[in-house]
Amino acid sequence: MKIVYIYDAIARIGGLERVLVEKMNYLAEVYKYEIFLITSSQGNHPYSFTLSSQIIHLDINVPFQIQYKYKYPIRIWKKIALESSFKKKLQQKINEINPDIIIGTSNFKARTICELKCCAKKIIESHCARSFTGINDGIARNPFMHWIHYIQTQKVHKLIENNSNIVIALTQRDSFEWRNAKKTQIIPNMTQTVIATYKINKKMKHVISVGRLAYQKGFDHLITVWNLVKSKHPDWFLDIYGDNGALKQELKKQILELDLSNEISINNPTKNIIEKYQESEFYVMSSRYEGWGLVLVEAMACGIPCIAFDCPYGPSDIIEHGRNGLLVKNGDIEALADAICWMIEHEEERKQMGIAARETSKKFRPEVIMKQWDELFKELVKQ
Predict the structure, then answer these.
(1) Considering the entire predicted model, what is its pTM?
(2) Residue-by-residue DSSP string for 100-150
(3) Angle at 36 between CA 123 and CA 372, to 5 degrees
């Protein structure tokens, strides 16, 4: 069976890129599918995660990012030209491969994928809460451009519903948002997190959070929360691991203004994040919205409990309140501070939650999740 994944590039150290690579590698190496990865703009960028040698990678060299070098209205013409080139090159590759299944990841070029002329079954993966995909992203737009962006996003969603064979959601609530699609199915992400046999020495009184330094992840809320935590537990420390996102300088400024430089550290992404989880006492997620919550499962696999806002969508599918972590009303700053303080003050309960968290993570092991993908592929090609 030939399966084609379509994405822009495997160049960022991000959760989506990691999940995508791990799934493709597993399908190629364990299930022996013929896996093709078609990227638009990998170029000379090194892979951020190791791609199996059994995967055929084809980059069609359409650098969409160059359109942003231009101002309107020239940017519009550049965008049209790039879209046209991408559509033509992608169709050529699909004709050459003649795949059984094509998979679009999130909203990336979903319109073009759905309009491809071929016999392949088309799957669109929803990697974010549909209501927030490309809309409430914290980007400042004037009212007219915001309206245009909203209309375009709605058109893409409608096209996905009408033209894809199935939409795969990560959570029950996101699946409901896609209820008008031809078919939906819930398949959560997997994690290949394997705990080393040696014991990592914990950094005493350290808490961890991981994610892009962007509006979605709500680190501005978390810094405000930590200012409240500091008043009760000044000897505890928060490690944030994130990329050079749009809000990095604003977050650093916020830390300075609140005099939290000795209590909070913003660190660059690391491929040794598993070790960082193991060094920490527990994990905190302050996201405004999520597609799922890979970091929660990874942290749990490392034996640490998690605290999160009950945001749309994801944390409530993973955290069982009071068993493997704590859920807090979405956006409630004081409640999140109280939950963190409770976790700090209850060491024995924290350890028991960590044990339960590790058990929870087993539900998302590759052999469990990838079996669902294998069954789906076989079902689709029979139709």
Answers:
(1) 0.88
(2) SEEEEETTTTHHHHHT--SSSEEEEEE-S-GGGTTSSSS----HHHHHHHH
(3) 45
